[in-house]
Design a protein that fits this description.
11-stranded mixed beta sheet, TIM Barrel, Immunoglobulin-like
Length: 548
């Protein structure tokens, strides 16, 4: 998680036919649409201007692993202090495919123990974390982080298929300064050199325990935002140079192999996209030599290298194998497009180009994001922030070609743009308020319908950051087509879909729209014939779904 200012933080043979879409769930038919299908689209446009959208199932892009959010740190308090009724309401909003947005990835924070050691450094108790082991000579206490454990179980019970255990700092008893964040004195990293193996053993012990509880993790992320300096930060954190990173990844890989654990290593949760780039790509974007890169003030201030992560990790065959030819990064400070500094589109193009240098089968995860900088702080539960976020999701899916997209805090008590759901609850006895945001529902336009195992397919005709954006996904096992449109403009946009080359020679008969707007929260609409144009409301996110 990023420290926030002041408070936080793949088909064949088909005929082409027209279709309209937002996000829909509907029926596949073995033949063309029949003449008797005369369903009226209540939002059909009478406008003369209609955008033709071409969807091509022969154009294959990334495999989808899922959409998710993080359970740190608020979930410990909510999960251990709230009523069962209200906890289940939160869990349904996050995980249920009927009552909520159906997240398919859930992130669980393995704490370092700052609750005990860092009360003077981390003033907000909601930003501290317990550790399952308080000292080298102490036994594990699996009752710790009970609130997070409640939500981990709730996620599993509601069908969340992918879980990630992530770490911000090694346990405090493994750090040089005895705290859950570094200071200037510790050098390149706060992890003791002789504790690297101990750290790997600790993580493997945690993974084994949760496996035995039938709550096993699919991924373990041992390092978070290693470029940031994290000195006396208001949360747990740790920096690592490239050599430090390789030491941790190698030790953890060895320990997992030794125990026969199948949890995959997720790395490296880079703080933002610029830190991924090769020096020439960095220079092309910024006009500065790559060697001067100082994001987070780690590079140049401490020994070693803190940049060029794609090259250093995926360009090294040994390290690439350890992390499964996948790299993860956070999308902070990448949500605005300004003249000479287009971080929304151009920066993502460079990241994808940079990935392609080192292989065509590499996987990219956007593993954490919320809105920072000029558009924060300040809570906003409206479509304004929801559309800003949906725009980021769109370009991460179609330009960076992310296989997973994950939000930062699932629930926030802050006056900041960091939550999907907000609460004004602070302490036991306070009202357990639940305030869903439009950002929650807009993310749901992706997460509920673009399920793990789907693949992004070709869509042309909607890629305007100031107007209509669209992306299409097909799930072979479920035989479901999902098309997501983001209309950030103040004018309704009418589309006519032409779909070709979907699998098995099948044709779509009708589509079911789901709308998130100023007045609707992922609301299902009446199915519409694919032969009819469809009007996407102004300032909305719409999913059109067709299934067998």
């Amino acid at each position: 998680m990023t420290i926030l200012p002041t408070i936080c933080r793949r088909w064949t043979g088909w005929s082409v036919f027209p279709l309209s879409v937002l996000l829909l769930t509907s029926s596949w038919s073995g033949g063309v649409a029949h003449a008797q299908d005369t369903t009226v689209n209540p939002t059909a446009s009478t406008q003369a201007t209609v955008q033709t959208i071409h969807i091509n199932g022969q154009q294959h892009y990334q495999h989808i692993d899922g959409f998710g959010a993080s359970g740190a740190w608020s979930m410990d308090h909510i999960g251990s202090e709230w009523s069962d009724k209200n906890k289940n309401r939160i869990a349904d909003l996050l995980f249920s495919q009927d009552k909520g947005i159906g997240l398919s990835i859930w992130r669980f924070n393995i704490g370092a123990g700052s609750t005990v050691t860092d009360q003077d450094i981390i003033s907000d108790p909601w930003r501290r974390a317990d550790s399952f082991k308080s000292a080298a000579n102490q036994p594990y206490d699996w009752s710790k982080q009970a609130g997070q454990q409640w939500f981990l179980k709730a996620a599993k019970q509601r069908g969340v298929s992918q879980t990630v255990a992530f770490v911000n700092s090694p346990p405090v008893w493994m750090t040089k300064n005895g705290h859950g964040q570094p200071d200037d004195s510790v050098g390149s990293t706060n992890l003791k050199p002789d504790a690297v193996k101990d750290y790997a053993v600790f993580l493997a012990d945690v993974l084994e325990h949760f496996d035995k509880q039938k709550l096993g993790f699919n991924y373990i992320s041992p390092i978070n935002e290693p470029t940031w300096d994290w000195n006396k930060a208001g949360q747990e954190g740790n920096r690592y140079n490239i050599d430090d990173i390789r030491n941790v990844l190698t030790a953890l890989h060895t320990e997992l192999q030794k125990r026969g654990l199948h949890t995959e290593i997720d790395a490296i949760e880079a703080v933002e996209y610029l830190s991924l780039l090769d020096n020439d790509q960095y220079a092309a974007f910024t006009g500065k030599a790559g060697s001067t890169y100082t994001s987070g003030n780690a590079s140049g201030k401490y020994p070693g290298k803190y940049s060029e992560y794609i090259k250093e990790l995926l360009g090294d065959p040994t390290t690439a194998k350890i992390i499964g030819n996948k790299i993860s990064a956070h999308a902070y400070w990448s949500d605005q497009s300004n003249p000479g500094d287009d971080r929304l589109v151009r920066l993502r193009e460079l990241v994808r180009d940079n990935l392609n240098r080192y292989g065509q089968n590499l996987t990219f995860w956007m593993s954490e994001y919320c809105i920072l900088g000029d558009r924060g702080p300040g809570r906003d539960l409206t479509m304004k922030t929801a559309l800003d976020v949906a725009k980021v999701v769109h370009y991460d899916m179609v330009t960076t070609q992310a296989s997973a997209w994950q939000w930062w805090l699932a629930v926030s008590k802050e006056d900041y743009k960091d939550g999907l759901i907000y609460t004004d609850y602070q302490n036991p006895g306070d009202e357990q308020s639940i305030l869903p945001s439009k950002t929650l529902w807009a993310l749901g336009n992706y997460s509920r319908f673009v399920r793990p195992g789907a693949e992004r397919i070709g869509l042309d005709g909607a890629n305007n950051p100031d107007g209509l954006m669209g992306s299409a996904y097909y799930h072979s096992k479920d035989k479901q087509l999902s098309v997501v449109f983001v209309n950030s403009s103040t004018t309704a946009q009418t589309v006519q879909l032409n779909i070709s080359n979907l699998p098995g020679g099948k044709q779509v008969k009708q589509l079911t729209p789901y709308i998130t707007s100023d007045t609707q929260d992922l609301q299902r609409q009446s199915a519409v014939p694919v032969t009819q144009s469809y009007t996407i409301p102004a300032r909305s996110v719409v999913t059109l779904v067709a299934s067998k």
